[in-house]
Amino acid sequence: MAEAFEALARGTEPLIDSLIRELARLALRHSFENEAVGAAERASGTLPGGRPITVAFADLVGFTQLGEALPPEELSEVATRLANLTRDVVTEPVHFVKTIGDAVMLVSPDPQQLLAAVLELMEVAAVEEFPRLRAGVASGLAVTRGGDWYGSPVNLASRVTGAAPPGTVLVAETARAAIGDVAGIVWSSGRAQHLRGVQDEVRLFRASLARVG
Fold first, then answer.
1. CATH code reported for the domain at 46-209
2. What Cα–Cα distance (Å) separates residue 72 from each residue in 68, 85, 155?
3. DSSP one-letter string for 150-206
4. Max Cα-Cα span within the chain
5. Given phi > 0 = left and psi -120 to 50 = alpha, else beta, which region is 119?
6. For residue 48, what pLDDT is reported?
7. Where are the chain's structural domains?
8. What burial letters (b/e) apply to 100-133, b meaning 16+ CB within 10 Å?
9. pTM (2 decimals)?
10. I need a surface site. Which of 3, 20, 134, 172 has the fewest CB within 10 A?
């Protein structure tokens, strides 16, 4: 049996090698594109070809600890369920971009609609007793390549998500200004905060649904 397993492993090596090369190439291309966009922003002070967009990330709180408690197949099911819940709440003009491990990424040219979708996702996850989520939202100029998005609002939304307490939605000042005041949404007062990888302090506002009664 050991010899048979060894022969099987050797037989799959050509397939595995080509797969790993392709994945590595895609990862490098993504890294180069992201760096090129960042360099263009730094050089010109704006993003050539960029268009105004609002970006949101939502991720699972304590995913690492969850991975220690659950077998791999159940952990994968949790991530898949998050993607499915997100697709269920997303409608035009909000677009589901991708999953990134334990997180989902959404974009929209309409910041109000994007925030509404994120808040709805938080509500649905709570009702269905899904592991707690946290989310971050930012607006700015970004470019799209191959279905993905690049630019400062993408990076900022990711950093804001990392700073969000469990069960909350934090909104960067750029998105807060774009969203304005919306009926049914309650805002906390903004507070400036240093975020990893962001040079200047960012004012963050907590958004939540108004409770009736």
1. 3.30.70.1230
2. 9, 20, 29
3. ESHHHHHHHHHHHHSPTT-EEEEHHHHHHH---TTEEEPPPEEE--TT-SS-EEEEE
4. 70
5. alpha
6. 56
7. 1-45, 46-209
8. eebbbbbbbebbebbbbbbbbbbeebeeeebeeb
9. 0.73
10. 3
